[in-house]
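Notebook B, p. 112. Complex prediction, attempt 2.
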Amino acid sequence: EIVLTQSPATLSLSPGARATLSCRASQSVSFYLAWHQQKPGQAPRLLIYDSSHRATGVPDRFSGSGSGTEFTLTISSLEPEDFAIYYCQVRADSFTFGPGTKVEIK
Amino acid sequence: QVQLQESGPGLVKPSGTLSLTCAVFGGSIRSDNWWSWVRQSPGTGLEWIGEIYHSGNHNYNPSLKSRVTMSVDKSNNQFSLKLTSVTAADTAVYYCARVLGRYYVDSWGQGTLVSVSS
């Protein structure tokens, strides 16, 4: 079973700042990693798949990178609606989600 | 744009069976996609329960496999989840979702809270 570790657990930033979120996999997943965004009271939303491909309708301030075991989600300039929890996700035999990084307003 | 909607009882008694249905709108359950269930609780985060194809082929999370059954109702464009012998640990928000390719969950339903309590 693949274990995902996300850091930091919480990121406190101001609107307009750059956010860098990390996800580490316990074994190589090639580039098969996704990022989901979840706002309070809402379902998660797929943002990025295949490490770096934005899902339909996702603004280009969101970008993903990485391969193997190390991945990064970058938000180039935080908008008020970007403050949320972000989860990374992979699939081996089962789908696995990371514990999440909360991006909060500083 | 496919949309999914969960439905089912919000309260289940301990040792009982949790039953949920997911209706698919704006797309066909017969499409070349797998359909999935994911749950979320404060204690365990996001946990994948399993997936099913319109043919009936399925894959379940090994940790839940002995208690899970999924099925497809093609005539009503929906799929279902049954989880038996529930305990308080099964209290969670349950989401249905479409699987993108074979690797990713996308097009999540809004989620439904199921509490296990007497």
